[in-house]
Amino acid sequence: MNKKEIRTLNSEIEIRSSSDDESQKIVGYALRFDSKSEDLGGFVEVIKRDALNNADMSDVRALVNHDADKVLGRSTSGTLKLEVDDFGLKYIIDPPNTSYARDLIESMKRGDINQSSFAFIIDYENDGEEWDYNDDRDVYVRTIKRFKKISDVSVVTYPAYAATESVVSKRGLDDYKNELHNKLKQKQIAIELELI
């Protein structure tokens, strides 16, 4: 399963200017560790602190709204720097002198755009996720333990939970529910066989 998923983080993004030149940097966090997401359609998500260990981040793009036609930076060119720290995955973008980058920076300065997002693939081969049910909150909890790949970080206008992108996670929740149902059936069959 190499299905790409997208998540949005509600955290401030900054424009930082250097005093020696007129260049501006876009700085933010694409993801935060050990904090619960909002409801993602029947479940919440938590990213473990070591989920990025061994993740492929060799060629990550910085985009506007996950639009591949609006590239702000790229890790291989040095215009996107990624740092894993105690809080999560921090990014620093050296944006190009293009009309869409200048427009984005103006919208960010006004406070119209202030969220981050990232696109990823879970490492399913190495138990990259775990599902649990929280009885107290009546919600499923997906814990991401390992990412296989981070493909982009994006500055976004609003949360990018479009139906086609959230279907992947919904499918994971449905798989977990089916697995629980099958285990319950197996236990019921085992109990019935013992009674015979």
Automatic annotation (TrEMBL):
The keyword Protease applies. Keywords: Hydrolase, Protease, Viral release from host cell. Transmembrane segments: none annotated. One of its GO terms (molecular function) is peptidase activity. Residues 12-177 form the Prohead serine protease domain. InterPro entries: Peptidase_S78_dom (IPR054613), Prohead_protease (IPR006433). Pfam families: Peptidase_S78 (PF04586). One of its GO terms (biological process) is proteolysis. This is Peptidase U35. It comes from Alkalihalophilus marmarensis DSM 21297.
